[in-house]
Amino acid sequence: MTTGTFRYADPATINRSTTPFVKSWSKVDVDYSSFSRVSVSKPVHDLRSAVESSPSDFGIDVSGFALYNHPAKETSFTDERAIWSGYYAEVEALLREKLPGIKRVEIFDHTIRRNNGSAARRPVQQVHVDQTPAAAATRVRRHVSPPEEAEKLLKGRYQIINVWRPISHPATDFPLAFIDWRSTSPGDLVPIDLLYPKRSEPEDDGDDRGKEVAPAEETYPKTEGYEVKGETYGVVPNETHKFYYVKDMKPEEVVLIKCFDSWGEGLEEPWGKGKKGVAGWTPHTAFVDPATPEGTPGRESIEVRCLVFYEDEE
């Protein structure tokens, strides 16, 4: 176990307007938000030890996350085309192996984060959930064709799962922490618009992978040149939150993080058909582990976001 200081959305600075750029927002290309954050110190439990002690207490539908030892053939993650053509297939195979009943997987996005000064994406210290129910449905309609097939799939069970692993060395620096879904409540979640840089034709093909450029610091508070292309959940503090992490997580290990489930407890039409006891979301964040040795290499990681569709119920 260790202790972390976690940066939550400050409820007093959240704007719940539905008007773009008035409603609270975060930027996808830099760790900056229109709202303030509050820091809360919390104990962080080691997931490996917890799973060894009580395996049935954890899992993608139970706690909202799952840890596996599953080495990847792709190891450098420097060639975007190799990631798309090779690693994506590895991710789909992993999901089909670990999650029974899958009939279709659509991988729509990945992000590589490196904790160094030149990286376009770096670890984010903000407790969040990647997608709201509305954003999840939008993803289905954006990435599944023809449109009638998307509408059909929206009527069944589907999830968005983030497949996360370190690159090249253990993630000792800025490890990832996730909150046990059972320790959260719907009132912890605040819809936040996600701003993407506008891209000119022919660059704007709807796909941002491999096009990330770190913005200049003086542009962080500005919204010119950005557009709303997604919605995430910010998370406000709750003393019941229980955090886990994988100490010195190795590149051979992978964590599945549930961002959305149409069967998640409490969901109602049009977003889903909630089932009691099924995890609906997993708040997560990078954090500073005070036990990190001086001189530890900066964290490098890849996260792959997947739409996962299941066979229809009998």
Automatic annotation (TrEMBL):
Molecular function in Gene Ontology? oxidoreductase activity
Q: Signal peptide: which range, if any?
A: none
Compositional bias annotation for Basic and acidic residues: 208-220
Task: Write down the superkingdom of origin.
Answer: Eukaryota
Q: Where is this region: Disordered?
A: 197-220
Checking PANTHER family in the record gives:
7ALPHA-CEPHEM-METHOXYLASE P8 CHAIN RELATED PROTEIN, BLL6449 PROTEIN
**Family named by the database record:** Belongs to the asaB hydroxylase/desaturase family.
Any idea what this protein is called? Answer: Methyltransferase
Source species, please? Neurospora hispaniola
